[in-house]
From TrEMBL:
Species per Swiss-Prot/TrEMBL record: Solimonas fluminis
Comment text on domains: The N-terminal domain determines nucleotide recognition and specific binding, while the C-terminal domain determines the specific binding to the target protein.
Gene: mobA
Family note: Belongs to the MobA family.
GO molecular function, one term: molybdenum cofactor guanylyltransferase activity
Enzyme nomenclature, EC number: 2.7.7.77
Main subcellular location of this protein, as a coarse class: cytoplasm
Catalytic activity line of the entry: Mo-molybdopterin + GTP + H(+) = Mo-molybdopterin guanine dinucleotide + diphosphate
Protein name (record): Molybdenum cofactor guanylyltransferase
UniProt entry keywords in alphabetical sequence: Cytoplasm, GTP-binding, Magnesium, Metal-binding, Molybdenum cofactor biosynthesis, Nucleotide-binding, Nucleotidyltransferase, Transferase
C-alpha cells in the first residue's frame, strides 16, 4: 500500500462510519434491532455515540422504519436489493453512499464499541498493506466491525451478484487482515441477537455503572 493511502487512513475526517441496521432481527422476534432499547436508549444510538468520536461522517443502512432512523439527523440509505442479502449488502450500500476513502462499519446492536475501534483497524491495515481489516477478540471474529477502502465497492457488488452472503468468505477473498481487540477495555459488547443476550447486556452495563451512551 502506498504512503498516500496510509496517510488518508490516519485521519478520521477521511472515514465515514456506517451503522448497519438492515437485518430482519429474526432471533429477536423480528424486531428492528437498531430500535430495540437497552438501558432506555435505542441500540443504534449507542453505536452512533461510539462512532461519533472516530469518523468524520456517520450514516445508517436500514430497510425498515426509515423515518425513525432519519429522526437521528443522520443520512439513511437502504440496500439496493429487496431480498435481505445480509450485512454484505449493507456494506455495499454504505460504500456506495460514502464520499470518503475509508468506510468504518459496525452492526446496530454493538451495544459497546471500543473507543479505539478505528485506530486498531487502521493499524492492521497499515501493517498488513491491506484494503480491509476486521475485529477479532478472544479468537472470535467480528466481521461486521470492519474498515474498508471505498474502492472495494465494485468487487463487493460482483460478489453479491454471484451469490456471496458471508462476510467471512468475502473478506478472506479480498485479503482482509484482522485486528486484535482481546485486551480492549472496557470489554466490548459486539452484538445482541437474542432476548437473553439483551437481558445480560442490560445487567452487565448496569453493574458497570455505564451511562446511557456507553
Amino acid at each position: 500500500m502506498s504512503q498516500h493511502l496510509h496517510s488518508v487512513a490516519a485521519s478520521p475526517l477521511n472515514v465515514t462510519a456506517a451503522i448497519l441496521a438492515g437485518g430482519r432481527g429474526e432471533r429477536l422476534g423480528g424486531a428492528d434491532k437498531g430500535l430495540v432499547r437497552l438501558a432506555g436508549v435505542p441500540l443504534y444510538r449507542r453505536v452512533q455515540a461510539a462512532l461519533e468520536r472516530q469518523a468524520g461522517a456517520i450514516l445508517i443502512v436500514a430497510n425498515r422504519h426509515l423515518d425513525e432512523y432519519a429522526d437521528s439527523g443522520l443520512t439513511v440509505v437502504s440496500d439496493p436489493w429487496p431480498d435481505f442479502r445480509g450485512p454484505l449488502a449493507g456494506m455495499f450500500a454504505a460504500l456506495e453512499a460514502s464520499r470518503t476513502d475509508w468506510l468504518l462499519t459496525a452492526p446496530c446492536d454493538a451495544a459497546r464499541l471500543p473507543g479505539d475501534l478505528l485506530a486498531r483497524l487502521r493499524r492492521a491495515v497499515d501493517t498488513g498493506g491491506a484494503r480491509a481489516a476486521y475485529a477479532v477478540a478472544d479468537g472470535d471474529a467480528q466481521y461486521v466491525c470492519s474498515l474498508l477502502r471505498r474502492d472495494l465497492a465494485a468487487a463487493l457488488h460482483e460478489a453479491l451478484d454471484a451469490g456471496e452472503r458471508a462476510p467471512r468468505r468475502w473478506l478472506a477473498d479480498i485479503g482482509a487482515v484482522s485486528a486484535d481487540f482481546t485486551d480492549a477495555e472496557p470489554t466490548p459488547v459486539w452484538s445482541i441477537n437474542t432476548p437473553a443476550e439483551l437481558e445480560a447486556a442490560e445487567q452487565y452495563l448496569s453493574s458497570s455503572g455505564e451511562s446511557c451512551h456507553g
